[in-house]
Amino acid sequence: MLVVKAGGNGGLNTEAICGDIAELVRKGEQVVLVHGGSHETNVISEKLGHPSRFVTSVSGHVSRYTDRETLEIFTMVTAGRLNKLLVERLQQLGVNAFGLSGLDGRLLEARRKPALRVVENGKPKVLRGDWSGRIERVNAALLRTLLASGYVPIVAPVAVSHEGEALNVDGDRVAAAISAALKADGLIILSNVPGLLRRFPDENTLIHHIPKDRAEEHLKLYAQGRMKKKLLGTIEAVRGGVGMVIIADGRVENPIRQALAGEGTLIG
Amino acid sequence: MLVVKAGGNGGLNTEAICGDIAELVRKGEQVVLVHGGSHETNVISEKLGHPSRFVTSVSGHVSRYTDRETLEIFTMVTAGRLNKLLVERLQQLGVNAFGLSGLDGRLLEARRKPALRVVENGKPKVLRGDWSGRIERVNAALLRTLLASGYVPIVAPVAVSHEGEALNVDGDRVAAAISAALKADGLIILSNVPGLLRRFPDENTLIHHIPKDRAEEHLKLYAQGRMKKKLLGTIEAVRGGVGMVIIADGRVENPIRQALAGEGTLIG
Fold this sequence. Notes:
The structure is a homodimer.
Chain A: E1 2-6, H1 14-26, E2 31-35, H2 38-47, E3 54-57, E4 62-64, H3 68-92, E5 97-101, E6 108-112, E7 116-120, E8 123-127, E9 133-138, H4 140-148, E10 152-156, E11 158-161, E12 166-168, H5 171-181, E13 186-191, E14 209-210, H6 215-222, H7 226-239, E15 244-249, H8 255-260, E16 265-267
Parallel strand pairs in A: 1-2, 1-13, 2-10, 5-10, 6-11, 13-15, 14-16
Antiparallel strand pairs in A: 3-4, 3-7, 6-9, 7-8, 11-12, 15-16
């Protein structure tokens, strides 16, 4: 069983990713696809007159500030647009895809972050009214039921809080949590870089292998921006018992096949 | 088992509908909720710079012209916004709601309409490039699996064509097709009128009961606009073996409880 994450920052070869999934499914492989939606949310938020706002945490992470209106746009775009376009494409390729968000059947339960500690204009500040969370539980039984019935789950990065509210969650962490909950054979995180780079953005400095016990060290030394969350996700997945974790290029032809053939950064 | 349709034309008491569903589920009743999204699609299409276009068929029906961009907005709004807001509200009320569209697991298979025959400026015309369809098959096994696992399915009115394309389908006909496929005990269609009116829009002329064999006569004599599709849906449901079909007021307190207590128009 394989969990694939296709990034939300644009530039990926979605057509090739869907083609690879169709090939794996034809061969009898069980696949779960998790997607993002950050870039498309920015585009549609702008058009709807509520542009995205990004904040920098005191620890230096840049993240979206998800007020209630942003949450509703994010949910609409990820669960209603990107998710259904992927399901449609896969259905056209003969895959019985099944799109869902973490709200549906409480697939992804998360704890809402009480407040964001951010830095604005050089000053620390507490931002309230943020609708994002950290995943605490995956309804693995639901995914197993869908997989056993022959469906291919396509998961949008929206979770449900313990109180039943929708929450924006990070897609890489969703993929890590799902692969750990299912004890998947592999997790492949596809993005618009070839893997972890020793000197970002020089693609000739790709790190081919990170031993399990040196992942945190690599995170601190080499990961920039979004790559930090991807590497955090891989560490969680490896700890959760996932056999093989790969960060690979999602822009190429046959991105999943190439990752399985040894391209990208293998963690573990 | 009960199938409830909550109209997409605005003005409904969604809070009260969710409250009634939560009460039924607590009592052990199996419920499937089908929703619309026409009004909200108009609002968001307008904001996104692609306003809705309505056409009149040669037989006099007014319907949405669903070009590809409209299909994508319709899908985003119904499956990603309205569907997830309903799921969120029901989750907050303790109901394990599960939102899905007809694309997901091929829940609703439809045949794409080859072309719309419309009248524009008094002249008949053939409109191509329409992405709407007529439901031909319901994946009842999928709904039964969800219901048996304790989930409450919430269905958005998007179907999948035999070729795997997304299609806009009528929510009332979706509810009718699902209730017939599940051989539901009842179908309740909630809208912003009290039921079928003898002289629309005079709400004092409510028709309380339509015998099964006189439904088509009533359709021709009294149904106006959207009510035609609702009545068509009820005829399909009754023919499909649904025990009790009610068209009732969705604007009131306890709309489902009131319909079950004898309010609205009972067909059959």
